[in-house]
């Protein structure tokens, strides 16, 4: 991929799968892109316990116990799963599909389950606290009117 090459992302929602309840943020790195029977081995279950307003779930991954919570994305936000767009033509020697800068939406989600392996989920988890920045970003990007400036006093 050359520097300065435009990237296209197709976000058409026609016939796109909703993965809410099936998106997980694991506290590890899996160095594989091969298909796997995840649902056969990874079986989260509800514990019926609530911690700081978060419904606790538990699962095991490679023999390690994980504690997690499913949270909804903030209002006005949606998660996307993107994949390389099929070019619909045979690979040529000039352009391979792997180097394509065209992406398309494969699925959407409104909920994500995040997992901890060494502590229970809480409102102080970095993953949850990252969503607080969305409020800050919105405030920073809202237009400021002359009335807002006039009503603000600066004490220097």
From TrEMBL:
GO terms for cellular component: ribonuclease H2 complex. GO terms for biological process: RNA catabolic process. Gene3D superfamilies: 2.40.128.680. Pfam families: RNase_H2_suC (PF08615). InterPro entries: RNase_H2_suC. This is Ribonuclease H2 subunit C. It comes from Senna tora.
